[in-house]
Amino acid sequence: MRHLIRAVIIVISLSILLYLILRWLELPDQIIAAFSAAPLASVALIHQLLRERSGPPRFSTEPREIVPLDEYSLPWHQLYIYGTLIFIAIEVILSILGIVFLLFTSIQLGFESPYEPLSSIPSNFILINLFMLIVFFILGKWVGVRSSLSPILGVLVVVAIITTVRFIYLLVSLFVFPELFEFGVASDPLVYLLAIGLIFIVFGVVGYWRGRTTRISSYLNFLVKKLPKDTQVDLIDIVFDELQKDNNSS
Asked: Alpha carbon of 192 to those of 14, 146, 200, 202, 215: distances in Å?
């Protein structure tokens, strides 16, 4: 637990330091927000380096060594911290890149304000959130695969992560793109947070149930990847032969 706390402190400190440096350089708020959020995605890597101190660093959250199924699962607090920090970084970076692209497009189309198409063409803004539906589905599936919690607790972890991510993202949006709210894209931030967040939670929960059903197969895939290539092929042949014998006997 102490290594995880240190990892969180390190990535947040890096984000703050990067924010101050970019602010000192007087770069645009959008660039500052995107780059400042990036270090948060490295929390799993930093945690791994602090805990293991051996072998090459990896961005994967999977164990480095072969472990039994119960140790393949992550505790709820680690799922929450990993999920929250990593997906805050993903949502902030992807959303800002998407909005910057839309603003660039609006300038090319000759709108009076670069934010006008976001209100006059709602589908453009919705596209960003549609992409985030996929992101939160992946988040829920990851929690389902790596969690041994009961279904109710697993769902609560997914809901807690998405709620935290959306709240922080809304604060960032108010700071970086206040014009979005002035042009009616989200005239009521609270209603916007609840409506969009509820949809994201539904997709996250669906992803969780999908991950829960594939948990054993994901663990088997983790074990197989630890084997040499030749052994993997032999193992597949053995499994195939056994299944064929069962089918023939039945």
From this structure: 30, 31, 12, 16, 34
